[in-house]
Design brief:
With about 500 residues, the chain is of the alpha+beta class. It folds into 2 domains: about 240 residues, Beta-lactamase (3-Layer(aba) Sandwich), CATH 3.40.710.10; about 200 residues, D-tyrosyl-trna(Tyr) Deacylase, Chain: A. The chain has 13 helices and 21 strands. Helix 2 packs antiparallel against helix 13 and helix 3 crosses helix 9.
Amino acid sequence: MPKKLSTSLLILFLSVQVGINHQIVKAQTPASTVPTTTLKTICPAQLGAAVDTIINRSEFSRARWGVLVQNLGSTETLYSRDAQKYFIPASNTKLLTTAAALTELGANYRIRTSVYRDGDRLRVVGRGDPSLTDAQLTTLAKQFKQKGINEIKHLMVDDNYFQGDIVNPSWQWEDLQSGDGTPINSLIVDQNSFSFIVSPQTSGKPLKVIWLNSEQKKQWQIINQSVTVEKNQPSFIKVNRELEGSVLRIKGQLPEGSQSQFVNLPVFAPAEYFLQRFRSVLAAEKITVKQASVLDSNSKNEIEELAFIQSPPLSELVMTANQDSNNFYTEALLRALAIKKPATKNQSTADVGLEVLKSTLTQLGVEPTSYVLADGSGLSRKNLISPQALVQTLQGMAQSSQAEVFRASLPVAGMSGTLKNRLVDTPATGIVQAKTGTLGGVVTLSGYVNAPGYNPVVFSMMVNQTEQPARVVRQAMDEILVMLAQLQRC
């Protein structure tokens, strides 16, 4: 059987709210935050009272805050609140996964996709390269050409390198219909997502649908119930689809003259999708395929490697995972960790990766009981991490051989990644490097601050069970970061 979502998912009819999204996997890029603090400098002894003043505001009376601030390279604590308690971490989970991946695999590690010759058959073996696109598939096809292959009697794609569910069973339904919860398998192309664009026309007309892949256009029947409205009207797009079927229903509206919107949807039979895309690339290179199939069992008959492609080095994959808060890349890296430990019978690749992650972080100095993980990206609400675990991870990585690569992968306040629009034109601009995290009722932020007048510090701030909009919590966190950036020795 090809790897698809479980049968229970296939009978459901779900809807997804789609917003402006220029990436296959949504990055957490909030609106600009301008802290209101008027302090110019702050002494370490004043920090506790100043942070408490922010956390104890009435709007946070029902929220849970966990905060830990330490001097980098020591256990000297500048501020602590519930630092040893569990919180839902959202994408701060990626700090643990990427730290373990860099430590175990090294910055130069690459994920290899191989093609083996087996008599008259060619077998493509994927190993979970999240960066693979048509451009890399074209490279493979050209390697065939260079070896004089113009016809393939039987093309097989082997999707069995990763074992277990291709989506985490604890992910929420709506995530499975968006770019956040895309299935993870061994054979990947374009992050297992397909896209189209909806554009406004003149008022009263339906939105125009523009496909980015002509082959995908052939596979879907569009029922377009959207409309172009007059200028200054609100924008919203909703796409309904059956998880098994070929109908997409587009509803919603865009104002006349407004920007087009990208709609990204996950592939639900990724191995078949990979095969279809590879066949299209081979056809473009004038290579004929007589027969093609997806292998339903793992084959060890790797007689001759005919061709291969490799991912960028792990340093670049980790950069994408942390800078863009890319769930897909991070889940692929979690599974890549599994090569460090043999799997037992019926054990999923993701579970093996989590075991390697825990043993690796323990060696880095992270208390193994200070966190519990269900996935590698933070999409699951079953993840539980303490501020202590995040600070210990950051402290351990700062002392490791991968310190520079790890630090470079984090967004920089006011400059890059998911912090590009935060802390702009504040004392924290350019000196805070941190990982964001957001789910409903959850806002987290952990990283480093290089205060010009003080020692470098490491911090973790986690807020759970808040009814406040995320922007309100981020505003408060950013005020605290501005204070950390203005620490002085006094």
